[in-house]
Design brief:
Layout (H helix, E strand, L loop, with lengths): L3 E11 L4 E9 L2 E6 L4 E6 L4 E4 L1 E6 L15 H10 L2 E9 L6 H15 L3 E2 L2 E3 L5 H13 L4 E5 L9 H14 L2 E5 L3 H13 L6 H6 L2 H17 L4 E3 L5 H12 L4 E5 L1 H5 L24 H13 L4 E2 L35 H11 L5 H15 L17 E11 L17 E11 L2 E5 L2 E2 L25 H8 L7
Parallel strand pairs: 1-4, 1-5, 6-7, 7-8, 7-9, 9-10, 10-11, 11-12, 12-13, 13-14
Antiparallel strand pairs: 1-2, 2-3, 5-15, 15-16, 16-17, 17-18
Helix pairs in contact: 1-2, 3-4, 7-8
The structure holds dihydropyrimidine-2,4(1H,3H)-dione and zinc ion (2 copies).
Amino acid sequence: MADFDLVIRGGTVAAENTTRPCDIAVRDGRIAALGEGLRGKREIEARGKLVLPGGVDSHCHIEQLSGMGVMAADDFYTATVAAAHGGTTTVIPFCAQHRADALPAVLADYHARAREKAVVDYGFHLIIANPDEQTLTTDLPSAIAAGVRSFKIFMTYDRMRLMDEQILDVMASARRHGALVMVHAENHGMISWLAGRMVKQGNTAPRYHAICHTRGSEAEAIQRIIALAEMVDCPILIVHISTIEGIEVIRQARARGLKVYGETCPQYLFLTAKDIDRPGVLGAAFCCSPPPRDEAAQAACWQGLKDGALHVYSSDHAPYRMDATGKLPKGEKTTFKEMANGVPGLELRLPLLFSYGVNAKRISLEEFVRLTATNHAKTYGLYPRKGVIAVGSDADLAIWDPEKRVKIGPTTHDNTGYTPYEGRELTGWPVTVLSRGEVIVDEGKLSAKRGRGQFLARAPSDALQPLGRQVPELAQLTSWNTPLQL
Ligand code: DUC
Ligand code: ZN
Ligand code: ZN
């Protein structure tokens, strides 16, 4: 008699620390048993295949107005369909507050959009652009209590950036109420000063974007944000790290025991600034902030992923079409300052890392699982529901054919209309993808209903717990019995 709704039979199952052949049984959308000889009402044969946790993409921009005021090309349907095709079964995009917005309205808006369109489960981060009294003392705490346990702040972009005092206010609030602060760390003054000079000299092509975002501007901002975070004992996660210098700053902070987590993305492993250097405005397709660098920086990002200086590998999917709706508001005349920043990556994040990482023997299968799923779930309060193959976890699974060869075409399933990875030949692909036990993609065919994705209220994770360590001056205050009220 069949005991389970579904059994995935005979696959090689990889978890965060082990890989072994076993069957996976699913009941009511969850993993009910792991073992041998399990029988289900429905069975999927996975012999010769790898069964991995569905990816968790903790950095993506979906149906979001960017810092420069441009609407992303993907809505919650197209973005999550693309995610599913690439083996990602959980996304954590941003609800973006712009300066005039009240947080409750922002949250309600994104909930309404995602609820009717998402095909995979989703959580939310916030972007905080206006940390006023109402936001800090009332709206942020309510959002956190409702499971939005992380928010991104910007050190650059005219419309989004926060001053140091505002950053400290946000950190203090995150610390008090239990949220993780994510930081876009680039020195605004260095970038805008150089960009002003470039434009004045008539250097407006996309390639000057990479010139203006010097590697020093990333390292300086990372250094500064770590000093701010250390002063208020607030764990931080620095997103989309691109440079040798930036990674080194993080490594030193971690060596001092600080809770500083790093993230990198496909564009920093697989693209370089040379990709941006194309005739006319074609290079805009590869413009993101920070920009891709060079081969040495790519190697440093791989090394950072291996040694833990970089903790998660996310897409930073920021889809803008190569037309007036996105990258090219003024057509051929668009300057690099006017181009929307960002590249798509939700669908290809996992296949790229599998092919160039696991198959090329740069990383192990277990490292792949940690970097694409488990570490995200743990850091952002979704573990063990997501990011792991264990009894009781959601049956979010990707069955990979490790030998399947795929040549990347001009587009993927998102709505960007291009991919920066066109023409690459990959080995290894997630051929069958399940979300809560339901097959949502099989051999390239989508079977997921619009709106089936569920909102994930996230729990406080270990990552966001303060160290309980004071800088000497604040320790002095405490010893005088007049501690700083964070
Ligand atoms: N940079 C960002 O900060 N966000 C979206 C994409 C990008 O390039
Ligand atoms: Zn950013
Ligand atoms: Zn981003």
